[in-house]
Design goal:
Length: 302
């Protein structure tokens, strides 16, 4: 029986590998790829609205937000154009977070093209980051200290676009410095700040970064991608992360999201959202509606 809590899925992906118009290097390259959830081989298949709706069938998903799926970077505008066609045919997604590099010479041109699509609400442009807390990329082209990158980020305000921020935990405090310098750009942190290291030292670093970002009112947070590279979906472990994030950012600046189909490597859509609902049973009906629906509607102007 379908749960009737209205859901806006604030972060998911679609792609068509069989005869589709786009190329996804991380899915279609013949070389094996290892990512933070391990082998992504199971994702090398079409994932279209019918697949998404099948996965989400037990939940009342009323709108969705598509986040760029890392197609070939010379097709970043083509991806948006394809998604507009998908929306016209299937009625989803209802908003698009597109891609544009911030540090390239054509950043302004690409941003203008992306902003021309009426479903585009924001941009996800991943800065260059280090592989571990002990490494530094300070000053590297495309990093958060790169002047060209910072100038490109500031162009978002010209187009009324938000920024989907995705960096590992050890870059959260650095990202907070960027956010502080750009108070008029709405920002949403992806994937709960990637709390991959659940040891006490790891969580201490995560909390410090999360609090640094939450200190800035224009920053919201997606409660998503709680899966770990090793091990299965752990309800209790993920529950503490979700509730602590809500405590740090507040009810009005958090939103649930699936990150499907990627998170499907570890957990079903149904189990994930049943657990999200169980985790928040102690909250009021109005607060739960904010987390599952209202906050995403407001942030992405749905």
């Amino acid at each position: 029986m379908r749960d009737e809590i209205p859901v806006v899925d604030a972060h998911h992906h679609l792609w068509q590998l069989s005869g589709g118009p786009l190329y996804y290097p991380w899915l279609q390259d013949p070389q094996p790829h290892e990512f933070f959830l391990g082998d992504y081989g199971a994702l090398k298949r079409d994932y279209l609205p019918a697949d998404y709706r099948r996965d989400a069938a037990n939940h009342n998903v009323v709108k969705t937000v598509h986040v760029e799926a890392e197609c070939s970077r010379d097709q970043q505008v083509a991806e948006t154009r394809w998604l507009m066609q998908i929306h016209a045919q299937y009625g989803m997604p209802n908003a698009i977070v597109a891609h544009a590099w911030f540090h390239t010479p054509n950043a302004g041109e690409i941003l203008a093209e992306q902003a021309g699509f009426h479903l585009v609400r924001g941009i996800r442009s991943k800065p260059v980051t280090s592989r571990s807390p002990g490494e530094s990329v300070a000053g590297v082209a495309g990093s958060m200290q790169d002047r060209k990158w910072l100038a490109g980020l500031r162009l978002l305000r010209n187009f009324g676009l938000s920024w989907d921020l995705r960096v590992p935990t050890w870059h959260l405090e650095e990202a907070a410095q960027v956010v502080r310098a750009n108070p008029d750009i709405p920002v949403v942190l992806n994937h709960t700040g990637f709390p991959w290291d659940r040891s006490e030292p790891g969580l201490t670093l995560w909390r410090r970064g999360m609090k640094a970002l939450a200190a800035h009112e224009q920053v919201s947070c997606k409660l998503s991608c709680l899966c770990l590279r090793e091990g299965v979906w752990d309800y209790e472990d993920n529950r503490r992360i979700v509730l602590e994030t809500i405590e740090i950012f507040g009810i009005d600046r958090c939103m649930f999201a699936s990150n499907f189909p990627v998170d499907g490597l570890r957990v079903s859509y149904d189990r994930m959202f049943q657990d999200f609902k169980r985790m928040t049973e102690g909250l009021s009906a109005s607060d739960r509606r904010k987390l599952f629906h209202d906050n995403a509607v407001r942030f992405y102007r749905l």
